[in-house]
């Protein structure tokens, strides 16, 4: 309580309460700045601020706000004129003894940036069926020659039970409640199409953001702060966002914060996963690598079945318009798997089963790359170098030196409007994506040079099951170390080690460490210590070269060094810190211990002894 000029007590006005501003970042920064100078000025009354402005109206104060406007400026200056906001800021600066002109310039810049903000993504109204196919991942529909010219890009959508559940999430978002829906089903069951049809029901004013470049996790982390209210965050094939170490957990944590912040909503996260990826992300393990992903996903699963029910088939057959693609699918789809038929699965499988020799080897190399840890975009140089290793002697002798153009022509050939087995990936800068900040983490490293290809979704899933017990040949692993994307080499190294290919695992983990993955460094130290306990060169190299911007991963490496009794190397690592699979089937056999501690070759033979010096 203060006093007036005659010493009588005067009740001090209650300070204006601080409001939470969610978006855009510039408005949040402006609000924080105004409240900071308000506090530094000792929270003057609204009348005092109005009087200060009135006394300085001719002294570069551009506005003349009254009490209510002053209050709104301090709470949330979003919709007020720049002149009024600047005047309030200058009045507060005068009482706080800040530089008025400097503060006024900062306020003008932030006010303008806040007014210009649109948020990530694009207006939903700009998307049509063609963009749904090219930009959002909805599958092409099987072509029908008899009516090709009069058909829409996509056949009519037949609602199913999963659509009904999805509509509930959409309605809640339309009413102002943020939410997430995760459609889980096998390949080509209509997950992405269902999301697209549900999204189209949102009213005007919504935006859609599909983060892709430079990598999907990097894109999310770079743009998360700029997600505006009424935005759909489109996470088709969500495993590419959440399974990546260590960025996947950062993405999941950021999405959780976004969804539970009322000042940012409503926002809608729409995701798709195969069942095996759902299991990977939601199954608790020791150590648990996906705690944040589990919290994000639990309770939001909507199953998409492989087949239509009899009732859904009846609706499909009675759909108005007689789209010949639906008619054909209803008549010919086996086991009521209509969406798979429409996505061209039978055509793809026929093409795959008809492939022979080096062409089939090229496909198998792509399948193995995906199931063993590679991202969706596979460098052609890797496939080209790996494929000859899959051939037997007869096939190899029958293969010409310039086999690639013919094989590539076969696997990229469209059939009945369906993209081929392998499809070229556009590697230019993605449109309407904000650049990610430079990082030294796992996404850092040299970009992949040359063409890249993506394996057809259904064949990707088919290969994971059909080839699950197959170990790729030596050429696959050596070319992976040379040509695979740096962000994939740690996972490929894990896959090699789990199959007893210790030398290949060490090379891939070393490469991944070089390109910024400290968790790969811990794996490198652990595995090589088990093979060569007295050789401290790997620990020396890891302690010297590992980036330390991930405290958790640095702690893992330090623990690995200590367990390896590499005290000197652990000391090296500590000085760099900022201020702030066993092949047990063989090693248990005493007379084979020396032979098999070096791992094996893909053919199953014991690997010849090798040391650190043999790694590139």
List the helices and strands and how they pair.
Elements: E1 2-3, E2 9-10, H1 25-40, H2 46-55, H3 67-75, H4 82-96, H5 100-116, E3 122-123, H6 129-134, H7 161-174, E4 179-184, H8 191-199, E5 207-209, H9 216-223, E6 231-235, H10 239-242, H11 247-260, E7 267-273, H12 275-282, H13 291-297, E8 301-303, H14 310-317, H15 324-332, H16 338-342, H17 345-354, H18 357-371, E9 378-379, H19 380-386, H20 393-397, H21 404-411, E10 422-424, E11 452-455, H22 457-466, H23 474-483, H24 489-498, H25 502-514, H26 518-531, H27 537-545, H28 551-563, H29 567-576, H30 584-587, H31 593-596
Parallel strand pairs: 4-7, 4-8, 5-6, 6-7
Antiparallel strand pairs: 1-2, 3-5, 9-11, 10-11
Helix pairs in contact: 1-4, 1-5, 2-3, 2-4, 4-5, 7-8, 9-11, 11-13, 18-21, 18-22, 19-23, 23-25, 24-25, 24-26, 25-26, 26-27, 26-28, 27-29
Describe the model.
- The chain contains 31 helices and 11 strands.
- It is of the alpha/beta class.
- Helix 9 links the parallel strand 5 and strand 6.
- The N and C termini lie far apart (75 Å).
- About 5% of the residues have low confidence.
